[in-house]
Amino acid sequence: MAEGDIIGCTHLAIQTMQQAKKPGVIINLGSASGLYPMYADPIYSASKGGVVMFTRSLALYKRQGIRINVLCPEFVQTDLASKLDPKFIDLVGGFLPVEMVVKGAFELISDETKAGSCLWISKRRGLEYWPTPAEEAKYRVRPLTSRRKSSFMSPLSTQIPQSFEKIVVHTLNHDFRRATSVISAPLRFPLKPDHVLLKVIYAGVNASDVNFSSGRYFSGDKKDIKSRLPFDAGFEVVATCGGKEKAKLLKDLGVDRVIDYKEENIKTVLKAEFPEGVDIVYESVGGEMFDLCLNALAKYGRLVVIGMISQYQGDQGWKPRNYTGLCEKILNKSQTVAGFFLVQYAHLWQQHLDKLVDLYSLGKLKVAVDPKPFLGVNSVADAVDYLHSGKSVGKVVVCIDPSFSQQLAKL
Ligand SMILES: NC(=O)c1ccc[n+]([C@@H]2O[C@H](COP(=O)([O-])OP(=O)(O)OC[C@H]3O[C@@H](n4cnc5c(N)ncnc54)[C@H](OP(=O)(O)O)[C@@H]3O)[C@@H](O)[C@H]2O)c1
Questions:
Q1: Distance between terminal CA atoms of the chain?
Q2: Which residues form the signal peptide (predicted)?
Q3: Residues of CATH 3.90.180.10 domain(s) within the chain?
Q4: Of 68, 153, 185, 360, which one has the greatest count of Cβ atoms within 10 A?
Q5: What is the CB neighbour count within 10 angstroms for residue 70?
Q6: CA 401, 402, 406, 407: dihedral to nearest 10 degrees?
Q7: pLDDT by residue (tens digit) across 34-74?
């Protein structure tokens, strides 16, 4: 079909769906040469590029339940492709099996999140969406309308999907990307009378996600720890971080003494400015930082361990460390070292969440969300990598449904 016809036919298909009130999926056939230049045939490349951008620009029909996507395969053995120089076909790894194109088409049909999506299919890299969310984030701008106050409007149709996407761990590994894949699972109908179907739009990623994907959190250690976190007012707060941006955020949050470990030596500062030691330490870095915190703990001090992010990565993943002399040190100063694992306090979540929401409403609790956008469930692994890069400032959040990416989440 000529590319001009693709525009006309797509509009015709949209109209037909609208008139029949039967929204569905339209798949245009582009080509990999619409994504990058095919020097041998510039006109072909240009027209396929047009198909790609035309289709991508129709993403917002998703609001009406109509999803228009484009397939961009490299060479399949058709009459047209057989006329090309075989050396050129060999360069890209040979002809694609037609089954791969069919698989791609089914993915674009069955995956409810795909709208205005462009699926590149190549022998070398398999099925890959183009552009990646990171590339998209570079050019995306927020329309002025979505900056208006109280303009929250659902861009979704109220159609109930038949399936949902979920991330499953298929191989235990601390490399979240290698351990997991995104699969589509059917929703179980009918819904039970006392059940509610919720759509997750934003999800936060957590440093410990790599411990779930490596299975470290399921070792069977269910020991209950009865410690309480004394978050109440009246303390002089010292906080550590790596980088100027984070230091500024901590200062703005009201921290009394920020130690940016890229600028100052934590041990030197603590020795000089807190010679009596620190009463309560909330520790999440582990390794050398744990040693340092333990040595800086005051008499009767309490050290709460919530994690050990510095030990999660590396070749072997999370490697437990030996803390030589721990018992002697805490005995010597009658100190307490306690663990705090959120999942073992699930019974207190609701109560505690209410408290946090109240504090937030009163302006006493400030929430920082990292501004880097991550769009779609497939970007969760990128978000996990970013969290572990040390560059994040605030909670790293993934917008699970990209059609909501222009909307601001509200408490
Ligand atoms: N106990 C629980 O139930 C529970 C629940 C959730 C999270 N956690 C723990 O809380 C900690 C923070 O998790 P989060 O999800 O809230 O993430 P987060 O605070 O957003 O973590 C990102 C920050 O960690 C620091 N970091 C990253 N890699 C590091 C490394 N190799 N060495 C030292 N610092 C590094 C970086 O800050 P700087 O470089 O500025 O230090 C980075 O900005 C983790 O240890 C996690 O396991 C515990």
A1: 50
A2: none
A3: 149-215+363-404
A4: 68
A5: 29
A6: 0
A7: 999 999 899 999 999 999 999 999 999 988 889 999 999 99
The pTM for the full model equals 0.53
Q: How far apart are CA 246 and CA 240, in angstroms?
A: 9
Task: In the chain, list all ranges with CATH 3.40.50.720.
Answer: 3-130, 226-340
Alpha carbon separation from 64 to 14, 24, 384 (Å, rounded): 10, 10, 33
Q: Which amino acid is at 235?
A: F
pLDDT band (50, 70, 90) for residue 205 = very high
Query: Do 66 and 14 contact (CB within 8 A), yes or no?
Result: yes
The mean pLDDT of 231-247, rounded to a whole number, is: 80
CATH number attached to the domain at 3-130: 3.40.50.720
340 lines ligand 1 (CB under 6 A): yes
CATH of domain 226-340: 3.40.50.720
Q: How far is the CA of 393 from the centre of ligand 1 (A)?
A: 11
Place of tokens 């703005």: 252
Q: How far is CA 374 from CA 59, 183, 205, 206, in A?
A: 18, 18, 10, 14
Give me the architecture of the 149-215+363-404 domain, per CATH: Alpha-Beta Complex (3.90)
pLDDT at 57: 96
Other beta carbons less than 10 A from residue 313's beta carbon:
15
| β-bridge partners, 165 | 184
CB 306 less than 6 A from any atom of ligand 1: yes
CB atoms within 10 A of CB 81: 14
Model confidence band, residue 160 (pLDDT cutoffs 50, 70, 90): confident
- Cα of 87 vs its chain's centroid, Å: 41
Residue whose C-alpha is closest to residue 321's, from 288, 292, 362: 288
Cα 285 to averaged position of ligand 1 atoms, centre (Å): 6
b (16+ CB within 10 A) / e for 89-124? beeeeebbeeebbeebbebbeebbbbbbbbbbbbbe
